[in-house]
Amino acid sequence: MSTKHNNEPRDIGYSKKHSEYYQGDDTSWLKTKTIFAKKYQKDLFIFAMALGKHREISSQFDLSDKKTSNIPVSAISERQKWALLSIGIAEDSDLICLKDEKPIYDKAECYAKEGMEILKSHMDKWGTNYPKFLESELKEILGIKS
């Protein structure tokens, strides 16, 4: 069953300076040997958004950093939409924020922007061992001992 969404944007976007990781020919993380290989732009966006939100780091798009809006919201699964919408619910502590979803999507884009910065620095530092680093960090967050 599909949920009715209010004032949902047509597209979501990411920082133009990160576009090479989303869609570059040789540098795209979706086409190279990364944990995102054979995934979609929407998956990378959701992952970056979650990472930015987890670290509580977001930043606005300024004039020097244009936003590239080319991930259709229609391509995002209902589960991914609710992951995105949970940001607004958590920050507003009220379900009334769902009356207008556009501001929530804007916040998600800001979290994804910073999440990409975090991902880039981690990929540069850890390289192909990044999945192992993520696994250990996740276990630490969940309180699981190795």
Topology:
Elements (H helix, E strand, L loop, with lengths): L10 E5 L3 H5 L17 H14 L12 E6 L5 H15 L9 H25 L3 H13 L4
Antiparallel strand pairs: 1-2
Q: Strand pairing plus helix content: what structural class? A: mainly alpha
- Rg measurement, Å: 16 Å
Helix content: 40-55%
**Percentage beta strand:** 5-15%
Total DSSP helices: 5
Quantity of strands, as a count: 2
Main sheet characteristics: 2 strands, antiparallel
Number of domains: 1
Strand order, biggest sheet? 1-2
Mean pLDDT: 80
Order of helices and strands: EHHEHHH
Note the gap between the termini.
39 Å
Contiguous runs where pLDDT drops below 50 for at least 5 residues: none
Question: Which descriptors would you attach to this protein?
Answer:
two-stranded antiparallel sheet; 5 helices; globular
Written overview of the protein:
By secondary structure, the chain is mostly helical. The chain has one domain. The chain contains five helices and two strands. Helix 2 runs parallel beside helix 3, helix 2 crosses helix 4 and helix 3 packs across helix 4. The radius of gyration is 16 Å and the shape is globular. The N and C termini lie far apart (39 Å). The relative contact order is 0.19. The mean pLDDT is 80.
